[in-house]
Amino acid sequence: MTVFSIRSQDLEAARRVEEFQAIAANICKLHITPADAQNYRSETVIGLLPGIIMADTVHSACTTDRTNQLAAETGDNILLHIPVSGGFSIRQDGGHDVECAPGQVYVDPNEVPGVAEFRSEQANVFYVSIPRSFLASATAGLNTALRDVTALTPQWRLFLNYARSLHEELPHLAPEDAMQCAAHVQDLALMALGATREAAELAAGRGVRAARLKAVKADIERLLTSPDLTPDLVAARQGVSPRYLRSLFESDGMSFRDYVASRRLLMAYRQLADPTYRTMTISQIAMQAGFGDLSWFNARFKSAFGATPSDVRARAFTG
Fold first, then answer.
1. For residue 86, how many other CB atoms are within 10 A of its CB?
2. Is residue 189 domain-resident?
3. Cβ contact 56:77 at 8 Å
4. pLDDT tens digits, residue range 111-160?
């Protein structure tokens, strides 16, 4: 996996536009014409993985042209344009003039020439490129969506949120974890495009469940110190059944109870070593972290970290 950036401001001012145009033509297969050449700014962070390419781009007003020659140099990929802010108009061969704004997705057959215009002084668009072969089981939905916009449905939002999170964390992931996450992105795209039942069930077993579990864990972090944190409460907040919630954690190799305990133990560990909490007793820290039984807390803490809470505190404030 590879992550790299393209920044116009890193280029020599006198030749900034020409050099940036050359880079964009080589990497993005686009010819870019800034609306204001002197003040044009663009920054793109690209993540390359087997099966997907992701790019988070922020730039000022410009026109992008995928010429016949540049289109011939692209692969047989589907490029998904998802505006985060700003927006653009686009027309590709065989299509019609389309406006794409935040809350929409444009589905681009990447090998087709076309022209897009970005009028906003700061457009932020997230792109995901997926080989067409990976989307074969969603062919009917894909063909309907090509060269057009579609609403950012809940399925597309799951796709976007998961892909953006992966893009952000990519530099910190082990290669095998990143490849597994790339498969989740593909599955979520299948679901959003209306794949066959078999493919949708596959997505439900991987991509959708992974995205749902991520949302559940984020909700747990918000409620971590609450004495009311239970599977029933989190399930109700997430709009799923407690049984489904338990199955999410079982598929992740840990029960809901053990996951919550591990997060609370880590919170307590950090506070025990933090001078900000030095005036608090160990029992107060344990209670604040959500542990009602001090002896159980001490036993779980030593099992998790190989040291007692007193040991951790003593090491933090001596020497």
1. 20
2. no
3. no
4. 899 999 999 989 999 999 998 888 877 888 888 889 999 999 998 999 99
Let me know whether 222 and 268 are in one domain.
no
Residues 299 and 240 in one domain: no
Backbone angles phi, psi at 14, to 5 degrees: -65, -30
Q: Is position 223 within any domain?
A: yes
The residues with which 49 forms a beta bridge, in sequence order, are 52
Distance CA 31, CA 63 (A): 8
Cα–Cα distance measured from residue 311 to residue 319, given in angstroms and rounded to the nearest whole number: 13
**Alpha-carbon gap, residue 51 to 150, rounded angstroms:** 23
Question: β-pairing, 42-49 with 52-59?
Answer: antiparallel
Rounded Cα gap, residues 310 and 103, in angstroms? 52
Instruction: State pLDDT tens for residues 202-255.
Output: 555 566 777 888 889 999 999 999 988 999 999 999 888 888 898 888 877 789
Task: Compute the distance between CA of residue 157 and CA of residue 143 in angstroms, rounded to an integer.
Answer: 20
Encoded tokens for 70: 């540049």
236 with 108, same domain: the answer is no
Last residue of a domain, one of 152, 184, 200: 152
Quick one: pLDDT at residue 204?
A: 54
CA-wise closest residue to 119 among 39, 59, 29:
59
Give me the helix-helix angle, 207-223 and 154-169, nearest 10°.
80
Distance CA 275, CA 129 (A): 47
pTM above 0.85, yes or no: no
- Asked if 92 and 215 sit in the same domain, the reply is no
Residue 28 in domain? yes
Task: Say yes or no: 286 and 306 in one domain.
Answer: yes
Specify the number of domains making up the chain: 3
Domain enclosing residue 219, as ranges: 211-253
